[in-house]
Design a protein that fits this description.
The protein is of the alpha+beta class. The chain has three domains: 71 residues, no CATH class; 100 residues, Arf GTPase activating protein (Annexin V, domain 1), CATH 1.10.220; 107 residues, Serine Threonine Protein Phosphatase 5, Tetratricopeptide repeat (Alpha Horseshoe), CATH 1.25.40. The chain is 47% helix and 9% strand. It contains 13 helices and seven strands. The strands form two sheets. It has a four-stranded mixed β-sheet with strand order 2-1-3-4, with helices on one face. The protein starts with a strand and ends with a helix. It comes from Sphaeramia orbicularis. Belongs to the centaurin gamma-like family. Keywords: ANK repeat, GTPase activation, Metal-binding, Zinc, Zinc-finger.
Length: 310
């Protein structure tokens, strides 16, 4: 008998011989001849099963892509819905589509060019629509918002006029450099609280801000921190947002431990993954560290990347 099967699984049988044809979706045909009816039917059944499996796999991939696309759309909308994100953080232009990862702020395309000129240690610019943003980062961006950013970076404008959406490039650049490079408008750093103590360093205050889940306080501290403050390995291990503030991933403390080593000792796989993603040297965790128990109690208390991002 002759049997013809195409990729839709259609088949016709004629009881004249043991031949069968395979017809592709593009019209190509392959002719085969079996030795018996049983052999022919076995071959046709195997081929049809493979065609069905391929079609199901293709449909599964489409559903997965569709699901991922929907998840990304939800994440991006959550960022846009954050307080103040309907306007550019620097000139109030509506519907900004660019983001400064360091600052957690949305900016318009005109201001984005000036941010790039600041250098990535101050502002690392990405497109909200065109670039793939890690899930941890989208969670952080949706938690911050331009309103929170400007409550820190524009707290004391002292009569300086913020540029309008139709401002010239020179006006934008003057404002943006004064705001982020010279830090002329940054909110003052409040004195240490009783729980912090008068002798606590900025690195220590960063750590306490993480423990307190206090995102505005953390962002304010980061705005006042030097590179050395941010490089303190324990704070770096616990506040992975420091990765975008020009920190040195190879920095070691007095015991020779890096942020990665401390994160591993603390059992924070989330911090380990983010540190490795951003190029932190891979090395085993130290066998003993005086800060391990403390760090472990902190990092296990909440998802660090959700609080602080990258």
């Amino acid at each position: 008998a002759e049997r013809r099967a195409n990729q839709k699984g259609d088949a016709t049988i004629e009881e004249d011989n043991f031949d069968f044809l395979i017809v592709s979706s593009t019209g190509q045909t392959w002719h085969f001849e079996a030795q018996s009816v049983e052999e022919r039917d076995s071959w046709v059944q195997a081929i049809e099963s493979q065609i069905l499996a391929s079609l199901q796999l293709c449909e599964s991939s489409k559903n997965k892509d569709r699901k991922n696309s929907q998840s990304e759309a939800v994440a991006l909308q959550a960022i846009r819905n954050a307080k103040g994100n309907n306007f550019c953080v620097d000139c109030d232009a509506p519907n900004p589509t660019w983001v400064s990862l360091n600052l957690g702020a949305l900016i318009c395309i005109e201001c984005s060019g000036i941010h790039r000129n600041l250098g990535t240690h101050l502002s690392r610019v990405r497109s909200l629509d065109l670039d793939d943003l890690p899930r941890e980062l989208t969670l952080v961006l949706s938690a911050i918002g331009n309103h929170m950013v400007n409550s820190i970076w524009e707290a004391r404008t002292m009569g300086h006029r913020k540029p309008s959406p139709d401002a010239t490039r020179e006006e934008r650049e003057s404002w943006i450099r004064a705001k982020y490079e010279q830090k002329l408008f940054v909110a003052p750093l409040p004195p240490p609280t009783p729980s912090e103590g008068p002798d606590l360093t900025l690195s220590g205050r960063l750590l306490l801000a993480v423990m307190e889940h206090n995102l505005p306080k953390l962002l304010l501290l980061l705005a006042h921190c030097t590179k050395e403050d941010i490089n303190a390995p324990l704070s770096l291990a616990l506040s992975s947002r420091a990765l975008l503030y020009g920190c040195d991933l190879r920095y070691r403390d007095a015991q020779g431990q890096t942020a990665l080593a401390l994160a591993r000792s603390a059992g924070s796989q989330e911090c380990v993954d983010i540190l490795l993603q951003y190029g932190c040297p891979n090395e085993p965790a130290p066998s003993v560290a005086s800060t391990v128990g403390f760090a472990a109690s902190v990092t296990s208390s909440f998802p660090v990347s959700v609080m602080l991002g990258m």
